[in-house]
Write a structure and sequence with these properties.
Elements: H1 10-33, H2 39-47, H3 55-62, H4 68-87, H5 92-109, H6 129-132, H7 134-148, H8 158-177, H9 191-203, H10 206-228, H11 238-241, H12 244-255
């Protein structure tokens, strides 16, 4: 059996990676807010027709007098605070629950137009928000797994392990099934490669699951290297950091360190 991560350490490793993800995302956003050259681009990419917040949520958020820049500032500081609390292992339930709610609101707030027979005068998201933001859905599943097994010293439970594999596999499946559709992330790879990586994660056990984890890790590494060549500002680094927990999840599965002590998810060595 390959074990490069201690069984009891895998949950702490995922928690620390979530912390690093939040810290990097918050710091990169905060630095972008203080760059004058980034102000217009940042506001347009957040509040514009191809931004992250639809008109409904903008009316709700800004009716109290808060400005768009102040909202982004609060979001950046909130990510940094959540990252620090996860890093020092304090208030895990509150922090993880808050991050889950934030990710879910981010999915709901995405401005999309999926009404048939409508001609758009501006560029907009034309795919369902749930599919465009499938990476956030995966992160939510990983966070739920972390929340369930946060105090375990023997690795993930069966439920936590299934949530972990599902959270990693879902973005790959969506990228394969809806390959080529508007704003759907296909990782820069053919659909069959994504399916070849995801199916063993969803259906495999033992060595097959381990192979699927290795293939999925390869897909994510390739995608991050591809995205890294397109980074032009600090703010854009947050588009990469969201994949770090999934990479760590793949590594945990590949090392088979996250399996529960009863080995019911394993078959043969």
């Amino acid at each position: 059996m390959f074990v490069y991560v201690k069984r009891g350490a895998c949950i702490h490793l995922l928690r620390l990676t979530m912390s690093v993800m939040l810290l990097l995302a918050g710091i990169s956003l905060l630095m972008a807010l203080f760059q004058n050259s980034m102000q217009v681009l940042l506001m347009e990419s957040t509040y514009g027709s191809q931004g992250q917040i639809n008109a409904f949520f903008q009316r709700f958020l800004f009716r109290g007098g808060i400005t768009p820049r102040e909202l982004l500032m609060l979001l950046a500081l909130g990510k940094i605070m959540a990252g620090v609390l996860l890093l020092i292992n304090h208030y895990q339930v509150i922090v993880i629950g808050t991050v889950i709610i934030g990710l879910a609101l981010g999915i709901a707030a995405l401005p999309v137009m999926t009404v048939p027979m409508v001609e758009l005068e501006v560029m907009a998201y034309t795919s369902p928000a749930l599919l465009v933001r499938i990476a956030d859905v995966g992160l939510i599943l990983l966070l739920v797994a972390l929340l369930i097994d946060r105090q375990s010293a023997a690795g993930f439970s069966i439920t936590g392990l299934r949530l972990l594999t599902l959270g990693i596999a879902l973005p790959l499946v969506v990228g394969a099934v809806f390959h080529g559709m508007a704003k759907i992330n296909h990782f820069g790879l053919p659909a069959w490669v994504l399916l070849l990586s995801a199916i063993p994660l969803l259906l495999g056990r033992g060595r097959i699951l381990q192979v699927g984890a290795g293939l999925s890790l390869g897909v994510l590494v390739y995608y991050l290297l591809l995205r890294g060549t397109m980074i032009e500002s600090w703010w854009q680094w947050q588009t990469i950091t969201e994949w770090l927990p999934m990479m760590v999840g793949c590594w945990i599965l590949f090392c088979r360190a996250g399996f529960p002590a009863d080995k019911s998810m394993e078959t043969e060595d």
